[in-house]
Amino acid sequence: MKPRHLMVAILAFSLFWISSACAQQSAEQLYQAAIYKEEVQGELDQAIKIFEKIVSEYPGSRSVVAKALLRSGLCYEKLGRQEAQKTYQRILREYADQQEVAAEARTRLDALEQAVSLAQPKGMIVRKVQIDSTVWGNAISPDGRYFSYQDEDTGDLAVYDQDFGKKRRLTDTANWKAPVEEYAGDSRWSPDSKQIVYSWYIKDEFSELRVIALDGSKPRILYSNAEKVGYIEPIAWFPDGRKILALLRKKDRTSQIVTVSCADGSIGDLKTLGLLGYPEKSYISLSPDGRYIVYDSKPKDSASNHDIFLLAADGSREIPLVEHPAHEFVLGWGPDGKRILFASDRSGTWDAFLIKITDDGKPQGAPELVKTNIGPVEPIGFTRKGSFYFSLQVSKHDIYTAEIDPQTGKILAPAQKTIERYEGYNTYGDYSPDGKFLAYLSKRGQAWLTPFYYRGGNVLCFLSLETGKDRQLFPEGLELFSTPFWSPDSRFIFVYSSKFDNRRGIYRIDAQTGEVTLVVLIDQNLYPWPKCSLDGKAIYLTRYDGTKDLCQIVVRDLESSLEKEIYRAPSGEIIWEPSRSPDGQWLTFSTNTIDTTSQKFISSLRVIPVTGGEARELYRGSNNIVSQTWTADGRYILFCSQEDGEKNAGSHGWGLRRVSIAGGESQKIGFDGMFWHLSAHPDGRRIAISSYNFSNDNSSGIWAMENFLPDQKP
Questions:
Q1: Which end of the chain is more exposed for a tag (fewer CB within 10 A), N or C?
Q2: 126-129: which pairs have CB atoms within 8 A and are 24 or more residues apart?
Q3: What kind and span of H or E run contains 85?
């Protein structure tokens, strides 16, 4: 280095050191001034203000900032304010490297939590876990310290340390992007809380079972069978750590409860559950001593509800544990080994029950109600101390109607909620072609993330636009159905049934009698957005086969069952929700794809003759298009498009737009929110909007239920 450059470097370093020293001195001086205010003058509020100034203005002085936060917490305690807990939690989350201060914050926080617990009435406590909102715990470690979960940014397996509020990724090879598409799935902790067994998704609908240590050492593949297995889900470790209980879903969609050897990955078959897949699911739990397995499943192939069964871990015997016409779902086996927690909608809401189990694996007495209206929970697991953790993510489904100017497209008045009964549980509003009714789905039980919610059935409802009266239909044999659409003569409703058995298909329901008729059985390669031709003799279907990179729109003759291709998408493109024009001559549909060069998401809205031919693009964007419908005069397409999701996270960045069938620029006409479905009234002035928004009542998140087991000490 040249002498001149060396002098400059030395001067720069000196100035940096001097400025840092001055900043440290200023922070320390302020800290002492705050201590004087606190301890000598007793002006706690003034002391807090000085401590806050240190935190905001001197972030580089970590040791002083950490001490300032600790003293702020002590001041808040003296004032009896709840900010004390938040302050101590912040220290553990952001200043864990300041070990002495962090240790004191941990001690103070524990003391506060114990005081709160003692102040509560004796008995059960249900509390929301204050945790990073990006952490949706998949499993809780037996010691209660860690959550394992899927990192939302990368897809890697990650853990969250509750003691210090720290997140850490254990894997680093996940990739959301095609053609790699590898990421972590379900996970379970070993009995000593030192290892995690987890599913690892790989492209082409295949997953492996892997094991990794908490220290993040290289994972080990425990089980892999790409030819036969679609997905393998870990359930629990056996107490001796030698085997894993797992649910194996084969490529043919049959599911089995199995054991997997931790030594060599060999499989032991225990129970075949039959056809099972999204949206249906079985919950399974292992007794703490490893002798019994409890699971929920349909009692017979024709049933729609789930009962609860107990299976010996060696497969030697099986008994029904809870039999009821309602839906019953396993939540977990209590750590005392004497009781099983389960959820039931027998009262009309999701309630939690305990049932006692004898040493020889038999039910003892009637189930005991523990907690009413627990909600649509996803079990995370029990800790050894008896705390039950679960996640809850509630969504609101409602139907709104608005008046629209047919010429300008402007909304003439604010949208109004159309259905006031069962608010939050109504979706897929669709106007009848004669303009007399609004058909819609109403959910009984609790709303969930999607309209295909598997815990509780759908009810088909008809709102008379003339009288304002509502009528309900419970289609026989159909519980899991969605996407209703009318026949052209307004006599029938077609629905898509998502049941994964031999009745999965499209059904026609008589709007007056409720009579159900099977239209077409379908396989897993059909998307659930069929539409009816103008003469009612055919339906338009979207077929998809990922193994052949094939996505197409076909027209199916209802009498002959013959199909004809109308449109085939280019490689890598997915077709969504066709919509027929009022004159029956055109179809619009949206497509999604990833640009191979820029790796950016691209959506497109297109129109094509119903007889087939060249598709013409009406709109192109970089975000999702969810639903579209024609205006009554056939001149415009109304559609939902995601605008700026990151800038408008509260409403998910969705808006309502329209574009002329003749082409040209699209026009945003209003509404911020997230939508499932649009339907335009034949009068050309009304539109029904089925919204989907996460609840803002602070109920979504991770929760803990404590002190509810009879032997659990508060």
A1: N
A2: 126/371, 126/703, 126/704, 126/705, 126/706, 127/703, 127/704, 127/706, 128/698, 128/701, 128/702, 128/703, 129/162, 129/389, 129/701, 129/702, 129/703, 129/704
A3: helix 83-94
Range from 300-309, 398-407, 449-458, 613-622 carrying the lowest mean pLDDT: 449-458
Q: Distance from CA of residue 137 to its chain's centroid?
A: 12
648/659 Cα distance (integer angstroms) = 23
Residue 35 has a CB neighbour count (10 Å cut-off) of: 16
Residues found in the chain: 714
Contact, 279 vs 498, CB < 8 A? yes
Prior bond of 433 cis (ω within 30°):
no
According to DSSP, residue 218 is labeled P
Residue 155 · residue 134 · CB < 8 Å: no
Does an H or E element contain 24, and which? Answer: helix 3-35
Kindly report, residue by residue over 199-225, the tens digit of the pLDDT: 998 876 678 999 999 987 889 999 998
Q: Which of 329, 426, 335, 421 is nearest to 375 (CA)?
A: 329
Cβ-based neighbours of 231, under 8 Å, separated by 6 or more? 185, 199, 201, 205, 206, 207, 248, 249
- Which structure tokens are listed for 337? 């080994």
Summarised one tens digit per residue, pLDDT across range 247-276 is: 988 877 678 899 999 999 999 999 888 654
Could you give all domains of the chain from N- to C-terminal order, each with its CATH number? Answer: 22-119 (1.25.40.10), 139-390 (2.130.10.10)
Q: State the Cα–Cα distance between residues 569 and 564, nearest whole angstrom.
A: 15
Joined tokens for residue 582:
């009022």
∠ Cα 570 576 581 (to 5°): 105
Question: DSSP character for 36?
Answer: I
Sheet containing 538-545, strands listed edge to edge, beginning at the edge strand earlier in sequence? 526-532, 538-545, 550-557, 563-568
Contact at 8 Å (CB) between 589 and 553? yes
Give residue for tokens 């490893």: 290
Sign of the CA dihedral with 523 first, then 524, 526, and 527 last: positive
CA distance 14 to 565: 76
Phi and psi at 326, nearest 5°, equal -80, 180
Element (H, E) at 67: helix 62-79
| Closest residue by Cα to residue 134 from 649, 675, 706 | 649
CB 586 within 8 A of CB 580: yes
Question: Can you read off the two tokens belonging to residue 36?
Answer: 């004087």
Q: CA-to-CA distance for 314 and 323, rounded, in angstroms? A: 23
d(CA 248, CA 29): 64
CA distances 536 to 532, 541, 558, 603, 642, Å, are 6, 14, 9, 30, 33
Alpha carbon 483 to its chain centroid, in Å, reads: 20
Which distant-in-sequence residues (6+ apart) come within 8 Å of 603 by Cβ? 590, 591, 592, 620, 621, 622, 623, 624, 625, 641
pTM greater than 0.90:
no
3-state secondary structure (DSSP) of residue 662:
coil
User: Which of 570, 609, 608 lies closest to 592, judged by CA?
Assistant: 570
Half-sphere exposure of 112 (CA within 13 A, CB side): 21
* Residue partners of 163: CB distance under 8 A and separation at least 6: 92, 106, 145
Average pLDDT of span 94-102: 85
Cα distance between the two ends of the chain = 69
Distance CA 87, CA 93 (A): 10
